[in-house]
Input
Amino acid sequence: MEQSSDSPEPTPNLPARAPRRDGWTADRQETFLKALSSCGCISHACRAVGMSRQSFYDLHDRPAAWAFRRAVEAALDCSINRVDEGAFSRSIHGVPRPVFYKGEQVGEYRHFDERLTMFLLRYRRPHRYGAHLDRLPVIMPEIPPGCSGEIDPDQAIGDLDWQLGDLVDESDLPGGANPELAREP
Output
């Protein structure tokens, strides 16, 4: 049998290495990747195939395991939806936190993480809550002539009452509430 020129020289003194059946076989790697894509947690996926986290990292860090590393990244990408759903659930429903009194739990309350909510809004709705809004200049309204800049609450309520006095019920207007249905006299 002839060897290609780019293959390494055979070592006649070492016996051929038989594949191990108790390690990361191709079937076990496939099962691990399926478990990882459904749960998103290395520890849980390792437990599902009966392997340790350390053996996973030993395999993951081997230079020749580039295909396995790429498959792990793809499996983690598949599981990101679970993280996404969990973050939304925590933002909307909060997380229960215990309340203790004299060393005993007497109740719980819901903690809502506002930073998580702001993060989700900023990256899910960037047009409305994005970072670009932080760089916009703050436009302060001009103070009308004759105003000192101080707002008197009583004056503001008086102005509002004056404006409300000018409002007219829509049904009292010519044409009533719906001008399309109005009849001309």
User: Anything to note?
Assistant: The mean pLDDT is 79.
